[in-house]
């Protein structure tokens, strides 16, 4: 080899090897960009955009002069020898902001020279003669354009000229250019997720190449586990990989909701349609009883934390509506490249604790080499509010409700303890009292029968949503960048509710020789407004009689009396809504930095550091004009008044700070001359800290109408108010939680001839949360997994099998429970205990030194295949998981200062199957034409998880695993019974209606057998009594879920739809009889239309199971609630029993059209004339319709009927969107 010292820019010299080779990884580096990217990434981004373009205007200039000018503009040095300069010609050239590579091509097009950019240098060499040089017809460049099946441009497609070292990639618009000297060559086209292709360069001239979907394992799909990036052909773990482009649905604005029906083995439950409500996700069942059952979210290898540390039991409650936001609520789906769902122990082992519920790894978009590309997307959506005409609103109108009142009058029924009158009853009371005459009573009766107040229209609205995203990306081989800003404005269907999100992201990657650095930032600001949950807006809309008007004739609000004990207050829900608010400001930011050192071939060291901060400021207020404040004023006397002045402000602030530090060494080598033996190893250490600091306080005397002013409450007012001022809520209190973890991890892998793979993962973790004993503080987690690529072995000669592989894993996962400590924490109260006349203290945390980790063993086996030239791809998997030492609550004596204590006592098991298919039913993509033929692709997720009776608590010593249960635990499914699935619930056994009065009768509670039952039940344990009067109803969580997505494409048109399904759980129909203060409804209460079919006279019990109106007050105090039977009371009234009986059970199975989207890609030639690189428009509908049990009468199957509150159903949304790039 010949080496030369050649003059560089500004008198510098660089060492030049005329026949040097590229680096092993094919990368080149630039020191200036490296320096800028590490110190000030935004400045680097700005400088880079300017530096990668060239502007020139020269005429007959010497080649050296032109080279120096380009070097000055780009900071790249030229390297050449004097021999070459003698062959150059004068340069006449005009360039305006031309990309560097294109500028060099034009500069050398008339010169006998070629160039190569390597290691920050532009290396000039002599052009070697070729056949193309002898044929001028081949000198023109070959321009091409690559799209996917939907007609969208594909970026970063690798195009290589076969048998040469020349390669390039498509830009953001899917465009590429091949030098004319390769016009007769074959092009090799490759992109992750698509089938490799070879095509002649001549056929690629200015045409659209549509790449067919790839076989499952045929292409080099990269799976990101957060710690490692693995070629899918070598993957031994259970991982589902999803490209965001495949699931992005306009109108669905959070990542978790996009996963519905897309991941085999994941259960998706959305119990509310309120704006900002987070769904519940379960991956392969439930691995903990008391701990958080949600999966772990990871962003670019860093674990994300929730902004508020909500009690796990509250999060696990299937009726809890999470409006607080979760770890990914601030992320813009438009910034996401890929999602990997890690399921088994092998995939999640490196995450240690908290990974027992599965891990969802999010990979953000990164910049790619090419000129700067700007993209803008905008969508506007319309969400339809509920209406009384909908099937879901199976409630009485005014006339139907008034007929119930008339029947009560005709039967001489009396309200019990009623002191509030409204509607028809109010008019009747006034008539009987002589306040109005019959004509006025008749007029009012007709009015109330036809008023039909539209509470739904008054309290809900057709809502509109806007979403905007602007991003800039580009780069070179040395530095790449991606940045974006986003704005989301979602108006809630419930009036006054909204969710706004401002988001930003910046990713910069820099390479310099043996070093690679990444720095990333993402931040968000969210503003949420809700009505306080105790207003029960949807409850009111459903359950308030439509005979009650909302406004007077003059347009003022109509008030009716609402009771608080023995006191009346004028009530109007619109007034309550306008005089209260629940407001949250959430700010979050995360910074991640990674530095990798490629020590030598196959060996690199990388360090990662990340910091995340968030601030959640929640303010909930009630003004002095609200019913909430009225209740605090009691009888308006000085002594009892708890809110003498103004309203109330409840302020809850939570700040989170977390950091992660990781040092990791990766090693890869091959053994043997043939390289068939491959060895990989990874090892490292990690430290994590997560701290929550919260402060809560309640202040009264608040005037929001005066700009948030607090008035001084005189000390002479209200002895009870002065006492309240000494409580924890009034004084304010802190909530602090600190979790520190230290871990080491290691992996080792072996592969033989791309046929057999074996991997071992191990992680040791220590936490401050658990006992003082060393063996309890340290948790080793390990997993072993393997893969057999049978296509490369026993099926190598079977032509119709493109790929087939078997893989399996076994290992352990762990889980920890926050809020536990080996130390006792005692808080001294400031006020004096009135009984002892001394200060007292409360135990905040009882020491638990013996608490250990929950440990879950996990087995996974599966087959992946691709057959018929990739037309049918799929996978089958079976899993089995067993958790031991599960956390359970144990009741202890109150002498300890606490009522319950967490122990390791339970066992759980889950098992099931997963099926995933991808079918290219029709593929008429025209490869040699710019027009695409018809394409039909089906991607069903069939079967999903089957764990019908397998997600159970196993305990051979006790039937009931928790000893402080009530009958409510059986009814709502929160009791843990051995041999039963978690969330198994029970119902009273309906026997029929009484032929005498139409009241419901139940097995085990017949009134005529009360003496016998009293003797029997008094000798039994409470749980045995409950099981005697109840029967098992089923489980509240589905055990089969999935989805079937279809895509149809033709020319520039595309139609996609996703149908989801859910089977296996039961729900109760909405309450029809209970919830009233007596056996009949109060005047202001509405009833479901089912009540029209109620029992009215003897004999009706043979035709209906709806109980009738009752005047018997004794039904509210049944025999089991009277001493001595009250010691084992198993229900409230018979009407409570009826609404919780098996006759009100319905299957919650459903099939739903989750989304349908129609897209049109504008013609490329037309778009280019307008200055755009690409553009498309789409119309999308989500939650369009649901097929479910007809007995639900339109009730959303996602609502259990168990909750005391009726939630807003998931509403249909229609969205139009446009996306342009330039």
Automatic annotation (TrEMBL):
Its main location: membrane. The keyword Secreted does not apply. It is found in: Cell outer membrane. GO terms for cellular component: cell outer membrane. It is a multi-pass membrane protein. Residues 233-359 form the TonB-dependent receptor plug domain. The keyword Mitochondrion does not apply. Residues 530-982 form the TonB-dependent receptor-like beta-barrel domain. Keywords: Cell outer membrane, Membrane, TonB box, Transmembrane, Transmembrane beta strand, Transport. Belongs to the TonB-dependent receptor family. This is TonB-linked outer membrane protein, SusC/RagA family. It comes from Chitinophaga sancti.
